[in-house]
Every structure is written in C-alpha cells, then in structure tokens.
C-alpha cells in the first residue's frame, strides 16, 4: 500500500484537478523576455520609419530663394536725388517746372568693377510725368548721365464705377434714409464740428472722439454711388442679405475759384435696410478691411476751425470697443 500511495501522489493521472500547479519560473522568464523583445522591435521599426520619413521630407523641401525686391534704403539714395535735381536745373531737359516727385527704389547691378546702384525717381513738370534712372557707385559718383523715359497716366479723373468689392453677397438698393445719413455725415466730416461728427457716428463709447477734416471750400452734396450687402454680421442666406453693407460715396465741394472738387469714400454700414448707421470710413476700395469705429481719434483734436493745426480739447485714452 505504501508503494501505491507513493505512485498515486507522483503520477499526474491521480493529481487533484482542483489543485493549481506552481508556474515554472524559467518558463515565465523566457515569456517575459520574448514579450519585451517584441515590443522593442516594434518601437525600433517605428522609430526607423519616422526617421526615414523626416529625412525624406527635409531633403525634398525647396530652399526659399532670396527675394529680389526693390530696396528702400539702398546705397547712394541721397546722391541720386542730388544728381537728378542738378541735371533738371541745368538746361531744363524736362521743362522749367520739372521737379522730383518721389524716389521709387533702387536695384544693385553687378559690373566689371564691382557693383553699382540703379536708382529710379519720378519727375513731373506740370504737364507730363517721367521716370528718371541714374546709376551711382558706392561712393555716390554717377557712372553716366541720367536717363529719362515718359510715363503714361490717365487723362481723366472719372472713376470706374464698375469696380466693386470682395466679400459681398449681392448689390443692395440705397434707401432715402441712407442718403440722408450720408449727407449729414459728409457735412460733419468735411466741416470743423467734432461734436456733430461724434453724434452722427452714434459711437457706444461715450469717451470716443472723432476728428473732422476742416476742408476749405463749400459743401455741395454727397451721393451714394453703390451699395452691397457684406458677407459679415448677421447674414440671411435665404434672402441673400445682411445687416452689414459696403457703400461708395462721392462728396462734392466747391474749391478754389469756385471749381468743383470731389472726394471719394468707402463706408461700412450697419442695418442698411432699416435705420442705417455708419460704422467706419476709408478710401475707395478699403471697405472689406474696415472695422467698426476704427476712425476714433486717439489724440488731441486739431483746431480745424482756425486753420492753425494746433491741438485742442481732450486727449482720450484709446478705446477698446
């Protein structure tokens, strides 16, 4: 019986099925090392693929070329001015009234002796416009006499009314209320009453200040030439309207010798189909970039009534509205 008991205890056939066997530590170590090896292989492959991708991306990124724009602070600028003015005064090659209107930049040109700087200036004589080019060395000495070529400019000041704006939905119909508002605004803007201009702007900031232009001459009229719904604010997609609109305005005044003078403006409007309000103004073409109440004046008001240009009145802090 002793032999039977010993054989029963050692034979797996007679083992108690409810008794859990102890795991073999050697087997567990091998499994752990194998799992770690698989993970490390995966990490290695992913890292290698990312490195190859990064190297490929960098190698195929084009190197930005050095821009060849016109420099606004090139060598010999003052010398080019002086040379051109002396040339215009000696013999009046472009007319007795010719004068330099602007310096339009310079380009560096390589030569057999190094490099020269070719400056371009605009010259007007009251009847025609010219583009004058003069090349100078680094020390400002010219390498030749100036060169002049005529510039064609439009012979009419009539605006092209077909040019609209970007960022619009469709054209709108200007109302009588808008025409009245624009006339009141134009009278205040061209005049010298800052309080009147502020009232018309209806700025929600009580500390806001607006600077009138104080233009010389007599106000004649203000016309709304074009209105379009802007793709901003509250847009009604079904009716293709908006509570914001752009407008182009012409202000007519009587200038010197009773000659008519016109000024052009773009306006940003609120509630164009109801009770319109002017939110901002700028030059023709500026409408898409106008922001509400951007014309607030953040300094001492200019004394436009006396024409002295001296500051007067309060100096409000810049508004955050």
What does this protein structure show overall?
- The protein is of the alpha+beta class and 321 residues long.
- Among the domains are: 77-151, Nuclear Transport Factor 2, Chain: A; 168-305, Nuclear Transport Factor 2, Chain: A (Roll), CATH 3.10.450.540.
- The chain contains five helices and 13 strands.
- It has helices at 2-10, 25-60, 77-89, 176-190, 194-201; strands at residues 99-111, 114-124, 129-136, 147-151, 168-171, 218-230, 235-236, 241-242, 244-254, 260-270, 277-282, 301-302, 311-312.
- The strands form four sheets. It has a five-stranded antiparallel β-sheet. Strands 1-2-3-4 form a four-stranded antiparallel β-sheet, covered by helices on one side.
- A hairpin with a 2-residue loop joins strand 1 and strand 2.
Give a quick set of tags describing it.
single chain, 321 residues, alpha+beta, Nuclear Transport Factor 2, Chain: A, 5-stranded antiparallel beta sheet, 28% strand, flat, disordered C terminus
Could you please say which CATH topology of the domain at 168-305 applies here?
Nuclear Transport Factor 2, Chain: A
The coarse silhouette is flat
Helix content: 25-40%
Mean pLDDT value: 82
Profile the largest sheet.
5 strands, antiparallel
| String of helices and strands | HHHEEEEEHHEEEEEEEE
What's the Cα radius of gyration? 39 Å
Task: Give the CA-CA distance, first to last residue.
Answer: 104 Å
CATH class of the domain at 168-305: Alpha Beta
Structural class: alpha+beta
- The count of DSSP E runs of length 2 or more, i.e. the number of strands, is 13
- Total of helices: 5
Strand order across the biggest sheet? 5-6-9-10-11
Q: What percent strand?
A: 25-35%
Which CATH architecture of the domain at 168-305 is right? Roll
- Poorly predicted runs are 61-72, 306-321
């Amino acid at each position: 019986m002793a032999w039977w008991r010993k054989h029963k205890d050692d034979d797996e056939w007679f083992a108690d099925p409810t008794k859990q066997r102890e795991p073999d530590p050697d087997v567990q170590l091998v499994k752990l090392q194998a799992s770690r090896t698989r993970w490390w292989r995966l990490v290695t492959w992913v890292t290698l693929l990312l490195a190859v991708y990064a190297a490929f991306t960098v190698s195929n990124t084009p190197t930005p070329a050095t821009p060849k724009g016109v420099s606004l602070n090139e060598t010999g600028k003052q010398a080019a001015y002086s040379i051109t003015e002396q040339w215009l005064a000696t013999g009046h090659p472009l007319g007795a009234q010719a004068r330099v209107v602007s310096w339009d930049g310079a380009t560096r040109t390589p030569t057999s002796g190094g490099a020269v700087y070719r400056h371009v200036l605009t010259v007007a004589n009251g009847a025609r416009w010219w583009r004058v080019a003069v090349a100078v060395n680094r020390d400002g000495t010219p390498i030749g006499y100036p060169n002049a070529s005529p510039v064609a400019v439009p012979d009419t000041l009539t605006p092209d009314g077909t040019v609209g704006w970007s960022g619009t939905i469709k054209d709108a119909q200007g109302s009588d209320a808008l025409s009245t508002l624009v006339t009141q605004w134009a009278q205040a803007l061209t005049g010298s009453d800052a309080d009147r201009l502020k009232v018309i702007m209806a700025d929600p900031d009580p500390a806001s200040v607006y600077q009138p232009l104080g233009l010389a001459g007599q106000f004649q009229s203000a016309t709304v030439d074009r209105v379009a719904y802007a793709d901003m604010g509250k847009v009604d997609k079904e009716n293709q309207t908006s509570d914001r609109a752009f407008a182009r305005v012409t202000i007519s005044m009587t200038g010197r010798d009773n000659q008519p003078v016109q000024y052009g403006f773009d306006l940003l409007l609120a509630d164009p189909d109801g009770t319109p309000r002017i939110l901002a103004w700028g030059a023709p073409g500026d409408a898409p970039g106008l922001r509400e109440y951007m014309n607030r004046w953040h300094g001492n008001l200019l004394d436009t009534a006396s024409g002295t240009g001296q500051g007067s009145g309060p100096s409000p802090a810049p508004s955050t509205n």
